[in-house]
Amino acid sequence: MTREECENGPADMLIDGNKARAPREKQGNSVPDKFNSNYLKFYYGKLFPFSDIFKWMSYGNDGKHPGCDQTYFGRREFSFTLDNDIYLRFQSFTSAAELESSIQEKCPFKIDIGPVYSVDPAKRHAYAQSGDNVFTPVERELIFDIDMSDYDDVRYCCSGADVCLECWPLMTVAIKVIDTALRDDFGFNHILWVYSGRRGVHCWVCDRKARRLSNEQRASIADYFRVYKGNENSDKKVSLTSPALHPFLARSYTEVLEGIFEEKLLLSQNILATEERYEKILDMIPDESVTAELRGKWQEKRQSSISNDINVVRWEQLKQLLQSGKHKGKGLRRYVEEIVFSFTYPRLDMEVSKHMNHLLKAPFCVHPKTGRVCVPIDPNSCEEFDPTAVPTLSMLLEELNQGGVRGDVGDDLDRTSLGKSIRYFRSSFLQPLLKSCKEEMESSYNAKLQQMKNSLSW
Amino acid sequence: MQPLRSHHQNDAIPALPLYRSAPPLEVRLEDFELYAIDRLRVLKAMSDGLSRGKNPEEMEKLVKGLLRANMRHPQASEDVNKDIISHFVLRLVYCRTEDLRKWFLSMETALFRYRFLLLTSNDHRRAVMAEFNLPYKAVSNAEYEGVKDKLGQVARSIGQPPPTANDIFYKVPFEEVPELVANRKVYIHKGYAYVAMNQVVSLVVTQFRSHLSKALILTNRKWTSTIREQEKDRLTPIVEALSTSYLGPDYSQPRESAEISIKDLDQIAKSSFPLCMRHLFEKLREDHHLKHGGRMQLGLFLKGVGLKLDDALAFWRAEFSQKVGAERFEKEYAYGIRHNYGKEGKRTDYTPFSCQKIISSTPGVGDNHGCPFRHFSEENLRAALSRMGVGTRAMEDVMDKVRNRHYQIACTLTFEAVHSSTCDAGINHPNQYFIDSQKILQSKNQSPGGS
């Protein structure tokens, strides 16, 4: 649909009588043609991967195996945010077709996925809050939400909702640190990272063990990841007081944080370039003799080396002073690490991860404010991910138009930039996950059979 | 269920039962209540200790003493049965509401933790783990070699000495030790946490807590559906009374040596009365009158302190007649005093009120009874305490406890401030305050009643 067609839109819409409306002009910063409900309708019609989402959410229960739980998909909560900010919770569906037709009909601006409940959410009012017959979450992926606006105190290029290539490395750090820990430390395998569409990333851990974790267990994992503690009232928000770092923190530092800090952020954020900025760093070093000496060097404004960036020079000086042993203070080396952690270490939204009933945006949604699709990110090549190059709704529709309208969804996808994301989703995440689900189902079914046989034999 | 037996003779700590199932024991109705009361005393004292911010070592010591003082049976072999029976009785008492369950769960879990820590041998601890079906594999020597560097790093990061080849580690699925994971106190690899022996406590306690929590819900269901009705003439009244009972001495029989004469009253009021009674006493002196609630609270207290009936009558008469005249006193008030001493009506010798009772009373307009820590405004309380001699530093501690509604602890802190001495047991009864105060003053070589 080109812009000209769109301008004829309102009249058509009224006649159709459906919920889609005229292009949103009150979008604020975003350009009107990037996102509107007409485009969205088309997107849901041609590109949104309904059957992939269905297969994923079924975790193998959509098959014919006797161990399949036919009620499983129907107990999953979805929620829709419609264009007039109407919020519909506790939506549930019994098949991919139902999911698809409801979304195409309602055309939600945002789709969230909630937990799998003990019973179909649509029937929840028939069940009590406590006692035997409850309506309660029974399975939910372990999820993480990392939002760039939580880093506003350590990035100078943007703030708030904005994101650019200078600060995006912070997300790269978060993905690497957390992904490695989830796999190596916690032993999880089926992990999906997704671009949130604007300024952050989401993580879905889908192993069966992860889905069955209690709230307390989720909280313990979130706390394991937590380092940053504080708010605008505290000077130091990272405190690494002990003589040694836990292996997880040490590994994160040497494998990820130190490198990205020194090679990217130090320079792109000009962390030590001005007095205001270096004072902020000096505030993190409680040792007066050290800070006085550094201040003295830096106030001179004379660069000893012309070829090296001033941030690099100053950082070297700082490290030198704290690590050389020249000053007598105890644990000075630790401050170098604290500074690096403060500027780079992942900042999770704890509440998202702690509660089973927390809703999270579905992958492949389109972000209403940017028009960008929430595409998966490959953690193995996340340093190459470019948020400014993510396909937008209007871009995809143009790509589709160039090929003319044809055949089934598979062909359509391949003709657009979304095809690559969907293929990645299927091959790197969905297929291994489903294979593993099938194996688990078979083995637990066989185990149950065996148990029954054993109890029958006297 | 096999409770553990300690092999050491003379061990003050009974074996460590896990209360998995109700024992098929017979117990006398009397013991049903008495055992429960003894255990409740332990739990309440622990609760007290925790709200006063005692650290883990102090708590361990406290628990050891409490068990020794309350949970022993004349026949040592019966200790275990008393332990088990008292626990199950209290389950009935404390299963009935969410708040009661929460408190009981929290105290029993804490008690279990300290008892586990007090176990002296590793064999005992391992036996408990086995009881919980914690089939955790000890890390083999070969595997230990592979991870010992990481284990050392973790140890240093939590301020512990590095492990040696003799130290035992357990490989445990990480989700079973959420506390340790959350605080990064263990090395985790491929879903398994490497837990040091001394961290095993956390494992065991988590399991204990989880079992007990579920058991309490089941007990509640059984209680409401069958037991309460079935036992309405036998166990139910006992169970319902237990959760609110005061558990200390009732001070109804003042000791022989504690005879107080009227002329001593003013002095001992100043030196040894708790604030609630001091206030009533001062008001009486000031107004020459007290309303019913105040007469009861102060009157019974004085009886507990050692004031004989005749002296009591003289004392109250001297005050009241200044307001209402001697004749009206005889007609309207003397009877009540004699009633308190068990000389009238059904001749019940009333016991002086405990803190619990006083705190829960509701003084109205013109009343002066109740607990000042609860009922006074902050301003008035500060003034009253400062007149008692509580210094500024202690004052803040007291007010902090008041704000958190720990009134008895506030009174205990007041006692400590005024007497420059600690009161480990905590104040539970105004007469206890008085006796403890007198003890301290006497030991400072003062004559009884002097200051």
TrEMBL record, chain A:
Disordered as annotated region, ranges: 1-29
Keyword Acetylation included in the entry's annotation: no
GO function term, MF aspect, one: metal ion binding
Keyword Transcription applies: yes
Record-level GO cellular component terms: alpha DNA polymerase:primase complex
Keywords assigned by UniProt, alphabetized: DNA replication, DNA-directed RNA polymerase, Metal-binding, Nucleotidyltransferase, Primosome, Transcription, Transferase, Zinc
Pfam families the record matches: DNA_primase_S
Composition bias type Basic and acidic residues, residue spans: 18-27
GO BP annotation list: DNA replication, synthesis of primer
NCBIfam families for the chain: primase_sml (TIGR00335)
Family, similarity comment: Belongs to the eukaryotic-type primase small subunit family.
Name under which the protein is recorded: DNA primase
From TrEMBL, chain B:
Names of required cofactors: [4Fe-4S] cluster
Binding site for [4Fe-4S] cluster: 276, 355, 371, 411
Alphabetical UniProt keywords: 4Fe-4S, DNA replication, DNA-binding, Iron, Iron-sulfur, Metal-binding, Primosome
Family to which the UniProt record says this protein belongs: Belongs to the eukaryotic-type primase large subunit family.
Identification of the protein by name: Probable DNA primase large subunit
GO terms, molecular function: 4 iron, 4 sulfur cluster binding; DNA binding; metal ion binding
Keyword Oxidoreductase found: no
Gene Ontology terms describing biological process: DNA replication initiation; DNA replication, synthesis of primer
Transmembrane domains' residue ranges: none
Pfam families tied to this protein: DNA_primase_lrg, DNA_primase_lrg_N
Cytoplasm keyword on record: no
Taxonomy, superkingdom: Eukaryota
GO cellular component, one term: alpha DNA polymerase:primase complex
Domain DNA primase large subunit C-terminal: 266-434
